[in-house]
Design goal:
By secondary structure, the chain is of the alpha+beta class. The protein folds into two domains: about 1-30, no CATH class; about 35-105, GMP Synthetase, Chain A, domain 3 (2-Layer Sandwich), CATH 3.30.300. The chain contains four helices and three strands; from the N terminus they run H-H-H-E-E-H-E. It has helices at about 20-30, 35, 40-45, 70-90; strands at about 55-60, 60-65, 100-105. Strands 1-2-3 form a three-stranded mixed β-sheet, with helices on one face. The model is unreliable at about 1-5 (pLDDT under 50).
């Protein structure tokens, strides 16, 4: 019980609502739900654009997207700036600065 106390804010108790404890833990781990909302936004914004492409990771301010073929990657490269603008508009700021396209099954990246 003594090990937990240093992580509590002054005035908080262990009987705080679970939601508050979860938010505190996520903040302590550096998790920002706004940034990870980019995966849902990606799905919504690119739904009809190119099939089979999936946002898989965030590295700093870059979004890593898995694409099934070079042709898919090329098509997304033409729309990259428009997609970046839509993502950042939905996130409320310039949070994602680049998109890296990676072929499925390889480690080759094709961001510009």
């Amino acid at each position: 019980m003594e090990r937990i106390r240093p992580y509590l804010r002054r005035g908080e108790s262990l009987s705080s609502p679970a939601g508050g404890l979860v938010k505190g833990l996520l903040a302590m781990l550096g998790f920002d739900p706004k940034i990870y909302a980019v995966f849902d936004i990606w799905d919504r914004e690119t739904k009809g654009l190119v099939k089979g492409c999936e946002a898989v990771a965030i590295h700093g301010s870059s979004l890593c997207v898995s694409v099934p073929s070079v042709m898919h990657r090329q098509e997304l490269l033409y729309s990259k700036q428009r997609i970046l603008d839509r993502l950042n508009q939905a996130l409320g700021g310039r949070i994602i600065k680049d998109i890296q396209f990676e072929l499925k099954g390889t480690s080759e990246k094709g961001g510009i």
